[in-house]
Amino acid sequence: MNITETRTDYELVMAYQNGEQEVFKTLLERHQQKVYNYILSLVKDKALADDIFQDTFIKVINTLRSGTYHDEGKFIQWVMRIAHNLVIDYVRKNQKIRMVYSNEEYNVFDMMNHPDLSTEQKMIKKQIYKDIHFLIKQLPKEQRRVLIMRHYADMSFKEIAEKTGVSINTALGRMRYALINIRRLAEENSMSLSL
């Protein structure tokens, strides 16, 4: 066993960022099987898994070279997150997903509970949940409260109005503005909220 193989991920990353190019081979060999198997388990296609695996490590190398990676002792988790995001990007791009907004006929929150989703759709659904959670946290407090009561507590606007001490029209208005703000924030953050 050579000295490179006994170094921690952190030590190898630091060495690579300091110009020891050859240590990246150890990092790659140490984690390639886990990363590749994870990608393959998601996409179920060897050629596609090969492409995404390669893109993952190109992104890892570029980030390490740029000096923007900050190690927190979680190198492999970071690599897996890059792989996961690349898979989601691929699925979204290749399923020709369109942006769908809530309106009178369709509610994005209703689609979230659809039972007949493929593995890829379930993966996208999980990412959408995370994105929606992030967006909801950005809303003003009153809008956030109404949205949570309506969609997560399944309360009527009458119940929301009583609980918050406002008129039904005010509760409806807050809900409307919450949805408008979520749409705007999603666009600003380049997030797709549709399957």
Number of helical segments? 10
The secondary-structure element order is HHHHHHHHHH
- Distance N terminus to C terminus? 48 Å
The tally of beta strands, per DSSP, is 0
- Cα radius of gyration in angstroms: 22 Å
Describe this structure in words.
It is a single chain. This protein has 195 residues and is mainly alpha-helical. It folds into 2 domains: 92 residues, Rna Polymerase Sigma Factor, Chain: A; 81 residues, Arc Repressor Mutant, subunit A. Helix content is 71%, strand content 0%. It is built from 10 helices and no strands. The longest helix has 21 residues. The N and C termini lie far apart (48 Å). About 4% of the residues have low confidence.
What are its keywords?
195 residues, single chain, mainly alpha, 2 domains, Rna Polymerase Sigma Factor, Chain: A, Arc Repressor Mutant, subunit A, 10 helices
Task: Give a quick rundown of the structure.
This protein has about 200 residues and is mainly alpha-helical.
Chain-wise SSE layout:
Blueprint: H1 3-6, H2 9-17, H3 24-43, H4 46-66, H5 75-94, H6 108-111, H7 119-138, H8 141-151, H9 157-164, H10 168-188
Helix pairs in contact: 3-4, 3-5, 4-5, 7-10, 8-10, 9-10
